[in-house]
Structure formats: structure tokens, C-alpha cells
Write a structure and sequence with these properties.
By secondary structure, the protein is an alpha+beta fold. Helices cover 42% and strands 18% of the residues. The protein is globular. The chain starts with 21 loop residues before the first strand and ends in an 11-residue tail after the last strand.
């Protein structure tokens, strides 16, 4: 009989093997990465474009373009595009990120001959109708006005402003006035520049037949040309340091807290080790921040930290919302936990817990061929290859108490971090207004 008082026997996770893509190049130079799995019924096709910015680096233009991408073409209205995709049981989704805009299609192989010409028309002959643009701008201005009443949104807005600076794509956040400055001619100019084969990478995963590759080559590798060369440039970042930024909300019940600073990105040799230390500190449910501030003190329902990576920058952030009476105490506890991490050695038991969690998370994230393609996309967008994951797992498994303290000393300095508080606090520390 099963004895539920005894934990099951655990075994270490062995080597994790990631699938490598078959790399092709179409006639126009478009790079294609193929992850084939005959057991998968679906196929996923991702057209990935680097975001192109003008001298103002206003990301609102790029996000608006992404939202309007499938709202009408030369031959189809937005409703007709939606009906056609739905009729064939497919799924079409544009996505916008800090550095890239993508268009993703999920479909069956047998419908590709009908749907790929539609995608070609979306990427080459979208009309970006004024009516849909007006609706999009109106709806998003209303959403923004609602968001501006929320403490967590204001804290996030201030965080990016102070960690990256306001004069670049990472630090800017939209205002109602900036939505009014979006014009259709500006969107058309960006559309013609950004959506070209010289600025595109194609990742195809699932049951990728030779017929599908031929259709893709015919639609996107022959007569799809680049009208001009796209030049990418790094943003000029102007971060602040060690500042406490406070916006008081007299009627607030909760305070939104954001703490962080610029950090390293994925292509840095220490990135896996920093991910490990961050996980221990606040990156999963069993982290020190959760145990202290949620479970022991009861100040919040959720608190966490994360290490983010962008094309031209990296950052670390700690985020939570707490009752206003616990604002100051929460800041004190976060600082205390960071100081402990920098001065005291973690136990082997705690390190093993984090190692197992990260190894299990990596293994669990590889549930399908699409997951393997996602892992590849992460390193591709950082101008790296799959060897990164070998380095990642090696570093995770090699972490020691001394290495944890060393990384914490180097990358987790509370005094250098921006502290954002929107709500109420009683501290007498000198603050600067948002």
C-alpha cells in the first residue's frame, strides 16, 4: 500500500536535448528555420520583424501598426480576413514587443495553399484603413485613461522611465496626446519600411511538409522584395540610480511598489547565474521574498522578482502591491532580504531546491515541437545559438553558496536601485516627485 507519509523517490534530471532547426534561405535571402515533427497535426508559421524606429523612437507607432496589420488589405476587409481564417479553423495573431513585431499563423497543412496568399497580402498590401485606425485610437485612449487611475500601471510607467530614460523606445510610455499624433501616412511609411524580407526571419514548426515549404518559397521567396535596406540602431539609454520616486494617492488602499535597475542581458556570461540568484530571491513561489513578505508577514498576496532581457538592454525588477499600512515595512524587508543574500551563504538544501525547480521548468517547457522552436527563437533574437542552453544548464547545476553570494554582490545592490512607490508611505526619506 502507498505510504503517503513518505515522499516518492526523486531522481536527478539528466541532459536536456533541444532540437535544432533545419536552416534554409529563400531566393530573396529570407532566412527560414524549420522544426519538423510528423506527429504534430498543426503547423505554426512565424514571420518575425525587427521594429524600425525614427529619431523620436516612439514605440506607439509600432504597436499601432501591429494592431492594424490585419484590419484590411487591397482585396479583403477586416471582417473578411477574420471570416476566412475562422472558416479554415486557423488562428492568426499579430504581436508587438519592445524589439520585434511578429505575425503568427496556426493552421493545417492542407489549408496552407489558401491561407498563405492571404498572409502575403497582409504583409505587402495592407491598407491600414482610417476607419479602423480611428476606432483603435479611440478605444486605446479610453483604456489608457482607465489605466492611469491604477497604481500598478503608474508604478510600471515610472519604472521604465527611470530605469531606461524617457528619450528612447524602452523608457517611453504612451500618453493620450501621443495617440492623437498617430496618423495614417506615418503608419503607411513605417509599414513599407518594416515589413520586408531583408528585415524578416521565418520560423516554421510542426508537421512541415515539403509542399508547404514550396508554397512558402513561392509566396515569400521570389517576388517579395525589399524596397530599401533596414538599418537598426541601439537606443541611447539614460538610467537613473538609487532614487526613491513617490507619488502619493490620498485615497489609496494599496501601494504599488516597483524596484529595480538596469542589468545584464542573455548574451552575458553571468546571465544564467543571475537567473539562478533571482529565482532564489523572488523568482518562484518558494522564493525568499514570498516566504518572508507573503507567508510570514502577510503584507501581500503576491510578490516577485524577475530578470528581463531586451535586444539592447537587460534589467531586474521587483514588483508587488501591499496595503498602505505595510508600504514602509515591505521596503525594509526587501532591502533586508537582499542584504542577507549579499552577506550570508545560502544552504545547500535551498540551492538544490532551486536547481531542481529550474531544471524541471526547463524540461517541462519542452512539451512539443513548438516549445523547441520557442527556445530557439529566444536565442535567435539575442543573436545567439542553442549552445546557450548547454551553458545555462551547466551554470545552474554548478551553483554554490559562494557563487550565489558573489553574483548577489555584483548585481543586486539595493542602494543603486530605483524605488517606485505609488500609493501612501510614511517614510521621511527624501523623495522626488514623478
Amino acid at each position: 500500500m502507498l505510504n503517503r507519509a513518505e515522499a516518492p523517490v526523486s531522481n536527478p534530471i539528466g541532459d536536456i536535448h533541444l532540437k535544432s532547426p533545419k536552416v534554409l534561405s529563400f531566393e530573396n535571402g529570407l532566412p527560414v528555420y524549420v522544426f519538423h515533427s510528423p506527429d504534430q497535426e498543426l503547423v505554426r508559421i512565424e514571420w518575425i520583424f525587427n521594429n524600425v524606429f525614427n529619431e523620436d523612437e516612439n514605440p506607439l507607432l509600432n504597436s499601432s501598426l501591429s494592431a492594424l496589420l490585419k484590419e484590411g488589405t487591397k482585396n479583403y476587409s477586416s471582417a473578411e480576413i477574420a471570416d476566412k481564417v475562422d472558416f479554415y479553423g486557423a488562428f492568426l495573431m499579430p504581436e508587438y514587443g519592445f524589439d520585434i513585431t511578429s505575425l503568427t499563423l496556426y493552421t493545417l497543412n492542407k489549408h496552407s495553399a489558401v491561407l498563405l496568399p492571404l498572409i502575403k497580402e497582409i504583409l505587402t498590401e495592407s491598407t491600414l484603413p482610417q476607419k479602423e485606425l480611428d476606432t483603435y485610437l479611440r478605444n486605446n485612449k479610453q483604456k489608457l485613461q482607465v489605466s492611469l487611475q491604477k497604481n500598478d500601471y503608474l508604478a510600471r510607467k515610472a519604472f521604465y522611465k527611470h530605469v531606461f530614460g524617457t528619450g528612447n523606445r524602452y523608457g517611453k510610455t504612451p500618453s493620450v496626446e501621443e495617440y492623437d499624433q498617430i496618423t495614417r501616412p506615418d503608419l503607411v511609411a513605417l509599414y513599407l519600411k518594416q515589413f520586408s524580407p531583408s528585415n524578416c526571419r521565418l520560423i516554421v514548426s510542426g508537421n512541415v511538409s515539403e509542399a508547404l515549404l514550396q508554397e512558402l518559397s513561392q509566396q515569400f521567396g521570389r517576388d517579395w522584395i525589399s524596397p530599401q535596406t533596414v538599418h537598426l540602431s541601439a537606443p541611447a539609454l539614460t538610467p537613473d540610480k538609487g532614487q526613491l520616486v513617490y507619488e502619493e494617492k490620498a485615497d489609496a488602499i494599496q501601494s504599488a511598489i516597483r524596484i529595480g535597475m538596469p542589468s545584464i542581458s542573455r548574451n552575458h556570461v553571468d546571465y544564467p547565474a543571475l537567473q539562478f540568484v533571482n529565482t532564489l530571491f523572488g523568482g518562484f513561489f518558494g522564493s525568499r521574498l514570498m516566504r518572508n513578505i507573503r507567508e510570514e508577514k502577510g503584507y501581500t498576496y503576491s510578490i516577485g522578482s524577475a530578470v528581463g532581457t531586451l535586444r539592447y538592454a537587460g534589467f531586474m525588477t521587483i514588483a508587488t502591491e501591499v496595503g498602505v499600512e505595510a508600504t514602509d515595512a515591505t521596503l525594509v524587508e526587501i532591502q533586508k532580504e537582499m542584504a542577507i543574500l549579499r552577506t550570508e551563504l545560502a544552504t545547500e538544501e535551498e540551492l538544490n531546491l532551486v536547481k531542481n525547480y529550474l531544471s524541471g521548468s526547463m524540461l517541462g517547457s519542452l512539451e512539443s515541437i513548438f516549445s523547441h522552436a520557442d527556445k530557439f527563437k529566444n536565442v535567435l533574437l539575442s543573436d545567439m545559438d542553442l549552445v546557450y542552453y548547454d551553458h545555462y544548464m551547466k551554470e545552474i547545476n554548478a551553483m554554490t553558496p559562494e557563487k550565489v553570494r558573489e553574483i548577489a554582490l555584483q548585481y543586486l545592490d539595493y542602494n543603486q536601485m530605483i524605488k517606485i512607490v505609488v500609493g501612501k508611505m510614511d517614510t521621511t526619506v527624501l523623495v522626488s516627485e514623478l
